[in-house]
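User: Earlier you gave me the apo prediction for this protein. Now I'd like the version with zinc ion bound, so I can compare the two side by side. Same sequence as before, with the ligand SMILES added.
Assistant: Got it. Here's the input I'm using:
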Amino acid sequence: MTLPITLRSSFPASALLRLRSTEREISYDYALNADPMVACRVCGSREIGLLQKSLCGSRFALLTCRSCRLEFLDPLPAPDDLRRIYSAEYYRSWGMAEGGNPAVDAMKKLTFAGHLRRLRNHIGAGDLLDIGTATGLLLEVAREQGFEPYGIEISDYAAALAAAKFGAGRIHHGTLQTAPFGDGRFSAITMTDLIEHVADPLDTLMRVRQLLRPDGIVLITTPNTASLTRLAMGAKWTHYKVEHLYYLNPRSMAMLAERAGFQVLSIRPASKAITLSYLRDQFRVYRHPVLTPAAEMLAAIFRPLRHAPLRVRTGESLILLRKARDTPQ
Ligand SMILES: [Zn+2]
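And here is the structure of the complex with zinc ion:
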């Protein structure tokens, strides 16, 4: 089919838009042919499209729900794939190995202190459970703020470091599903950079709800596909990694929370305390064609300031949920 001459010469922008939408439809067909049974795990829609055939050069595709815009990996990585990702090397890349790097730890604790202050607007002290606690930095801040700290961590390496700080009885080495904590006991449950890693986010939130007191609060941080960084960076977004299985946006997050029995208190952009030297180290591990050299350059130019924390919005949401009351049958 040929375009009319007038359209071709005077409407390049609309022609471009049309080409883009054609590309997307072809992609959707590919996804539907690849697996017609795939459905969105948040809203249940079977209107699924393909965003990337191979995320970060892996064998996993990135699909999107055309209804709620949830993005997710397909197929989901097998447990063996995930175990390889969460080896000691993974924690070393995040500056957590060998008992941690004091400068990195201080920076992360500043970030967590900001998050927990928002939590304290809604709840007093009590038992706080941090799921995916890594080496327990958030729990250190929570203890300073008056909470009784408890944690769950899947990596034996990180769980051992956290248990040394808080006692083995307070740190469960394993998953949420195998944790021995009783139902209805926690005032607050935190999941920072966690929900994008789990195989079943709805099941995770429903279990979290059981563990909470009737007025309990959940704090979540997770990458936001509706963020400016995602819009600006597209397929090169720094949160796209094979260990991130689900990518939410405020709408899909609210739908997921409500399905799991929560009332949304707030969803806002999260800010992190980040130093230039940390940024440079991260982009040495997760290489990016533009940001890796940019971070090297900034850390070199601002060498005297490279350990000073800056408040940066990295394209994540900070979400606060309250356990909704059971509806009478
Ligand atoms: Zn959906």
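For your comparison, keep in mind: The domain at 98-323 is CATH 3.40.50.150 (Rossmann fold).
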